[in-house]
Amino acid sequence: MDLTEATARVGVLRREIADHDHRYYALDAPSIPDAEYDRLMRELLALEAQYPALVTSDSPSQRVGGAPSAAFAPVTHAVPMLSLGNAFDDAEVRDFDRRVRGLTGEREIDYHAEPKFDGLAISLLYRDGVLVQAATRGDGSTGEDVTANIRTIAAIPLRLRNNPPALLEARGEVFMPRDGFARLNARQAGRGEKAFANPRNAAAGSLRQLDPRITAQRPLRFYCYGYGRVDGRLPDRHSERLDLLHGYGLPVCAQRQRVTGIDACVAYYVELGRLRADLPYEVDGVVYKVDRVDLQERLGFVSRAPRWALAHKFPAEEAVTVLENIEVQIGRTGAVTPVARLKPVFVGGVTVTNATLHNEDELRRKDVRIGDSVTVRRAGDVIPEVVGVVLERRPVDAQPFVMPTHCPVCGSDIVRVDGDAVSRCSGGLHCPAQIKAGIAHFANRRAMDIDGLGDKLIEQLVDRGLVHDVADLYQLDLPTLTGLERMAELSASNLMAAIGASKQTTLPRFIFALGIPLIGEEVARLLSAEFGDLETLLAQDWAELHARKQAIAKANQKARKHNVDHPERPALPVQDLPLRGIGPEITDRLSDFAADARNVEVIRRLLAAGIRFADNGAGQRNADAGSLALAGKTFVITGTFSQSREVITAALQELGAKVTGSVSKNTDFVAVGDNPGSKASKAAELGVTTLNETALLALLQARPGSGS
Ligand code: 5U1
């Protein structure tokens, strides 16, 4: 291609890439697959490498980040960047509305309600539609020039569209979405670098990099929520002004809403609070703005905050408190989880007194000691966790934790088998803690779904000797239940109905409910699809099956070699490789389970109680699978780890991840152990995030309920 053709082609590619960025980030409506986008970008990069004179500063190729600088230059804001007054309850919100109505003389106010993103305020200056300067808020009058870093954020257009005014200063928030934050921290751990405490810190740290090439690798996003200087006429309402900015190509959050009156504001707040944990990014509240700009102008400002806007804050998701003690909890498979007993602290909307420390290694890594001040996090419905220690507040007599040698519930030895990430109580079904946890797992929403059978009730049922195993649940009657503490007649009959309803289930749910180690929901689905019914599954001769599997794999390998050598007469592959995705560790656990007469007897009693399977669930995805921590993520495993590949696969699948055999652009993570194969280099080539063993375990253990 000669220079003239290359110039034309580069122009086309830049427009196409900018269009796709706009569709993806501003319209939330991508129109091509990632691989096709990457192909366009690679073509542009190749042409620019061939003809360096064609490189321009607004080329999408320049998002990779330029040379590092020594410092950030100060930038004076022509229009000060204001802060917001806060409200923490409804009464303060209603006071605000009363003030607004009083000062404007309006009977009712139209507000614009928006999520308050937990990131960093940024000003973007566009001249003739081209991004020329980006600055942080700083003290509101003077910020720092972060143009080089901001230019690396693909969500921020380098050039506006649709005839923007000659000068336009857009304002908004740069933030890091939750999934990108998790990936970044896994990568940090993999490199032995410090993890970021939360997405806000990660976003701030990423923007304050002197080397834009580092910022370029950070998954930052941007939403525009306002403006500073704008030459030219603007609509009369804030909501319409944001529509206009959106039309110029700036991403504006779709969750915003124009509402009338303060009751509608509060309803918006309640609804966003409900959605909060499921949003792809963190929000710390809602911002209400008077929508009519003439009223905004009449209201003006007081001490650097507008009288026409208010931040209605959500309860904080993190708080600092004192860790008063560390005790251990025993899970259904005997896993010992250290639990922090905390000085009560209000966090994430509830008072928290306990938080998980995950396991002994995690506790050591964070160097948590009794007496420390710790940061506790509770987001959404997840189990509160200790995020880290506030070292500056460590008292001199802070005590390191010593792992008990015996189970605090049944007195059996606590053992840690080589290669196991956790210590376990060796008491098995003699340990009441394991029995209770097993029953709670059985009753879980994703297993037999027995509504109303909570931990306190299970505790009473086991401690009073009314239930020894899960089959006993189906022998309970109404008089027994009403005789329990805090059990009214209505709750008892509801529970009886829930137990009755649980008898009609599916085979995957039932297999999962049995709580066999390593058998998560995904493996349970594979097993039911493979074997079709429980009897066949339990009657398997696993050793024979493995031998068959190996023989088939060998025959197929031979056939592949034959096909290469003799393409003219290819051999047919041996079909029907049994036990796909299920290897010897899982089947060992299954055969151990099936070999234990007590388990067979429990199953017999469960079936005798009337448990029936509607279908084998083959090909059916669990309705709740999407809510799992790694749902939708694809992993590839290469190399050797301290735990077998199968154990790792099962743990990933239990969190909703898919584990595949080859690396592609669609792979989210490649777990790289010792002596990795070509998959590791393929990951590097495609820019897929890699995780070493520490990072992988951190990812698995950061999830409540994993590893137990
Ligand atoms: N969504 C949103 N966040 N936020 C932060 N809007 C918004 N507006 C702000 C700030 C500081 O300030 C203007 C009201 C001045």
Give a brief rundown of this model:
This protein is an alpha+beta fold and 708 residues long.
- Looking across the biggest beta sheet, what order are the strands in? 2-13-10-3-9
Average predicted local confidence, pLDDT: 87
Structural class, by secondary structure, is alpha+beta
**CATH superfamily label of the largest domain:** DNA ligase/mRNA capping enzyme
**End-to-end Cα distance:** 60 Å
Instruction: Give Rg in angstroms.
Output: 29 Å
- Heterogens: ligand 5U1
SS field, number of helical segments: 24
Strand percentage: 15-25%
CATH domain fold name of the largest domain: D-amino Acid Aminotransferase, Chain A, domain 1
DSSP summary, beta strand count: 28
Task: Give an account of the 3D structure.
- It is a single chain.
- By secondary structure, this protein is of the alpha+beta class.
- It folds into 6 domains: 3-62, Helix hairpin bin (Helix Hairpins), CATH 1.10.287.610; 74-313, DNA ligase/mRNA capping enzyme (D-amino Acid Aminotransferase, Chain A, domain 1); 317-400, Beta Barrel (OB fold (Dihydrolipoamide Acetyltransferase, E2P)); 427-502, DNA polymerase, domain 1, CATH 1.10.150.20; 508-622, DNA polymerase, domain 1; 625-702, BRCT domain (Rossmann fold, 3-Layer(aba) Sandwich), CATH 3.40.50.
- 37% of the residues lie in helices and 20% in strands.
- The protein contains 24 helices and 28 strands.
- The protein has a 5-stranded mixed sheet with strand order 2-13-10-3-9. A 5-stranded antiparallel sheet has the order 16-15-14-18-19.
- Strand 21 and strand 22 form a beta hairpin.
- Helix 12 (432-443) packs across helix 13.
- The longest helix has 24 residues, at 3-26.
- Mean pLDDT is 87; it is low at 616-625 and 702-708.
- Bound molecules: ligand 5U1.
- Ligand 5U1 is lined by residues 82-84, 114, 116, 121, 225-226, 287, 289, 306, 309.
